Amino acid sequence: PTNFRGRLRYLGPSLIVTGAVIGSGELVLTTSLGAAAGWSLLWWMLLSCWCKSLVQAEIARYTIVSGDTYLRALNRLPGRIGRISWPIWLSLIAYIPITMGLGGIIGGAGQSLSFFASLAHVSIDGTVCTGIIAIVAAMILGTGSYRWLERIMLPLVLVFTLTTLICSIAMQFTEFRTPLDDVLGGMTPDFPLFVSLAALALAAYGYTGTTSGDITAYTYWCIEKGYPSFVGSDRSARDWESHARGWMKVLHTDVWLALIIVTCATIPYYMLGAGVLNRMGIVPEGNAETISALSNIFTQTLGSWAVWIFSIGAFLILFSTVLSGMAAGGRVFPDYLIELQLIDRSNLALRKSIIRWYLAALPMVTFVIYLFSPSFVTLIMIGGLTSAIFLPIQAGATIWLQSKKMDPRIRPRGLTRTGLWVIFLFELVMAGLVIWFVVLVPLRN
Predict the structure, then answer these.
(1) 4-52 residue pLDDT tens
(2) What is the 3-state secondary structure (H, E, C) of 402-435?
(3) How far is the C-alpha of 311 from the C-alpha of 114, rounded, in Å?
(4) CA angle at residue 157 from 230 to 426, to 5 degrees?
(5) What is the DSSP track for 117-168?
(6) What is the pLDDT of residues 133-161, one digit of tens each?
(7) Residue 321 to residue 18: CA distance in whole angstroms
(8) What's this model's pTM, rounded to 2 decimal places?
(9) Cα–Cα distance, 150 to 16 (Å, whole number)
């Protein structure tokens, strides 16, 4: 495609990723952080939305041009333990807390479905609803169809994004109207407050915007969309460089679309948490009570009737995250087996079979995890904190791969490379803060 309109025809991976991005982090963690901090950490949420998309685009640039999958690219990094590079071993260790985060998401979807049923005066336990969702998700995901999933994600993402935007605007016409000075004050860093809410703030950072899992997933969705084959592998062709850079414009358009949608969806959640819940003195906590407490962001801005909109929207957004998040995991899992040299990459039939069986089983596994957890919010925080730890690994890997393994003709410009270094250093500090506040400080106490 040679123009913007032509590029729009080839977009799609961003919609899948956005279906995962706009979910539990926004609905639960972002709103809860706004409720606890007021407007003082608005700057933090903007930073969370904007600082990761560059890594998303640039690691995808490498995988599309090189033909490597994400894990194959990581396995090229120096520093091996046996035949496998250290980042892959770390990600295998992190598989458990990441799966626990998925258990929190499916549990939140179950609680939202139970809340919706209660509005219709039908009493269904949240655990039962979670089990039902697990079965339905397994049936959908077991088909292994990218196109089917893409058609599901688009309307779900757009509908709930629009709803939250409307609520954040409607808030200004209620008793919760917020002066512009308060909003602008939220752009000034308040580090003492950040420290006091460190666990929640860092979990929100890890699970809002583009998470480490979403960055990984994006590369696989780009492959399934066909971007590497569109770029072509004949680098001796005279027009290969201009052709490849043309497809990089498609990639960047796709990433920008995701960034715009994510920002427009995430910030209203924080605004509603800070403007409504904080002033009401409500901080969502517990299990079944969380969804009920969160419903105030709609009922207090649009009216009591809006509880129906919230209950439906909360279920849709969490269920869409279940589908897209787990579907991405299904694409990554066989790649682990390939890099561990347990299966052959050329055996496409086996890989497809593994994806289908894995995706049919994963919802049930996460349901079991939810059964033995005290709260789905706790599980979501575990997933968010784990994501925050792995973000600098991805940024650092992107810098090294582009420098050492990428065709020089298609490397990013100098400003982009500088941006990657700044993001890498920032994310390294954030990962250190997670380890300090969540692991070391509790152990010392």
Answers:
(1) 888 888 887 877 777 666 777 788 889 999 999 999 999 999 999 888 9
(2) HHHCCCHHHCCCHHHHHHHHHHHHHHHHHHHHHH
(3) 9
(4) 75
(5) HHHTT----HHHHHHHHHHHHHHHHTT--HHHHHHHHHHHHHHHHHHHHHHH
(6) 999 999 888 876 656 666 666 676 677 77
(7) 9
(8) 0.89
(9) 6
